[in-house]
């Protein structure tokens, strides 16, 4: 038995991304210079012209590929794995490598000590 792949409904993807961005149809329409009804029609369309898609992507601050590859299940999975309601604790991933920060601080400390040593050495030579 053969199963056919579910067709990609680009209009629904645009709608979901717009909603996730907290943007109303009117705001998106204003941003790309069309009417709210046109946005409604676009969001109900399975396909959208590439030129219009580029304008929409720019207004939503995402890439065209981001719209085309948008998957609501993945977004919901990320959200559910990132935000937890355990006594109001939010699990944010670290945005930097702590070891890199330690190395950076160590390098600054070494540079400071080197400057101090050179200054003291200069003072000592001037005294002699």
UniProtKB/TrEMBL annotation:
Residues 14-67 form the HTH cro/C1-type domain. CDD domains: HTH_XRE (cd00093). Pfam families: HTH_3 (PF01381). Keywords: DNA-binding. This is Helix-turn-helix transcriptional regulator. It comes from Flavobacterium cheonhonense. The lineage of its organism: Bacteria, Pseudomonadati, Bacteroidota, Flavobacteriia, Flavobacteriales.
